[in-house]
UniProtKB/TrEMBL annotation:
Stretch list, region Disordered: 177-196
Biological source species: Bacillus benzoevorans
Biased segments, Basic residues type: 177-187
Membrane topology: Multi-pass membrane protein
Keywords noted in UniProt: Membrane, Transmembrane, Transmembrane helix
Protein name: DMSO/TMAO reductase YedYZ heme-binding membrane subunit
One GO cellular component, as annotated: membrane
The keyword Secreted belongs to this UniProt entry's keyword annotation: no
N-terminal signal peptide: none
Amino acid sequence: MNELLTVWNFIRLSGLLAYLLLTISVIGGIVSSWSILKKKKGDLLALHQMSGWAGFLSILFHLMFIWQDNYVDYTLSEILLPFADNEFPFASGIGVIAFYLFFLVLFSSDFMLKRLGKARWKWIHISVFPAWILMTLHGILIGTDSSETWVRLLYAASISLVLLLLTARLLTSRNKRHETGHQKKTMMKTIPLEEK
């Protein structure tokens, strides 16, 4: 068998691919609401959604390849239950939790949005950030390639970019709320007393 086409390499590849795709999805979601990118909103949302599902499918392949690995004999319960792994309980456990959180976000967005309503859906959708953080920690702690320079650069660039974009979005949202509140106060001052 070709040395590149081993289960071990597919485990590594699917894990890194899932990380990359889900990071792209998170970034797409963050920037899709920016007013300066209003004309590209449809494209950004499509990228956000497609990379999210492709990343989730990569996780499924990652789990399937781990289960089929002959070198480390994982049981289904070790793969699907948080902290059930005997060798790396914490690192594996946070990866499993990330998997379920990503599933919850994707499923609720594509199949439950109308039932949940926008307010509840938003609260569920925000759990993508803890999922992404747990996935990042999982990769750093247990990933075989985490000691490779290019993988370290991938994690460092991803973390920096997500933090930068998220900070910019939070500051923009805060400024919008402040401006809206200021406009309401100004309007109230200009309305004659008899109309108030």
